[in-house]
Amino acid sequence: MKLEERAALVKEWVGEAATFIRQQFETEIQVQTKSHRTDLVTNVDQAVEVFFRKKIEAHFPQDQYFGEEKMGDNPTSLNGPVWIVDPIDGTANFVLQQNHFAIMLGYYEDGEGLLGVIYDVMHDDYFEAIKGKGIRRNGEAFIPRYTDKQLDQSLIAINGGMVMRNVYDVQDLIVASMGLRIYGSAGIEIVGLMKGEIAAYISPRLQPWDIAAGMVFAEEMGLKVSQLSQEPVDLLQANAVIIAYPSTYDAMIGNFKNQ
Ligand code: 2AM
Ligand code: CA
Ligand code: CA
Ligand code: CA
């Protein structure tokens, strides 16, 4: 199946999932904690992940699937066709703000990102990246307007916990920038990069589903993405990640202290 056809199918599924998610605000959402008091999961995250797994299984039974809420396989390799799904990215925002969360899907073949989707559910803003074909926003070709700027002219986004604890001395980088923004959803932060609101997003522990879609966008937009150590991102484990416009990336990458 052509990538464009896959992309059209995904768009249909995401639309259906988003309608379901919005309807859940009329019901009582069941919230549980995972690794930490602030690490949340709800019945809605789980239901949406089951929904995507079933769609993928029905249409592409040969493909590997993995998602945050572990409703699929535990991935051991990126060989062949692989889907990487975050049913709700920004669960704390979903629970507490009913806003500022995203659905994210990445589709890879032999480790190469071919399709990325990030959907800002409450703003009905749909971003799709197809390898070699650029980005579409709500069905229209999307032309990034941001011009590459120096760090002192740039707003940057950094994970909140990392800022609070000054992990890798990131506060020095914030001081050197135009200012800090924290959105609380990797997907919404990557959308912020595409819209040119921010010039960099940095997080100390992104899981494969937090960054798989974003890496396809990065490739199509000419953004730089790597681990903070400058190693390539490994989609079989958690990574400390920077995704940024080239000048901002170059200004920051050598300055993550005490890694
Ligand atoms: P999630 O909401 O899908 O879990 C919050 O800063 C961002 O980091 C969100 O995109 C969130 O994704 C992600 N994240 C990754 N690991 C997390 C964790 N252990 N606790 C909270 N957020 C996490
Ligand atoms: Ca989570
Ligand atoms: Ca996530
Ligand atoms: Ca999630």
From TrEMBL:
GO biological process assignments: inositol metabolic process; signal transduction
CDD domains per the UniProt record, alphabetical: IMPase_like
Alphabetized UniProt keyword annotations: Hydrolase, Magnesium, Metal-binding
SUPFAM superfamilies: Carbohydrate phosphatase
Cofactor(s), names only, from the UniProt record: Mg(2+)
Positions contributing to Mg(2+) binding: 68, 86, 88-89, 210
InterPro entries reported for this sequence: Inositol_monophosphatase-like
Coiled-coil regions listed in the entry: none
Molecular function GO labels: inositol monophosphate 1-phosphatase activity; metal ion binding
Protein name: Inositol monophosphatase family protein
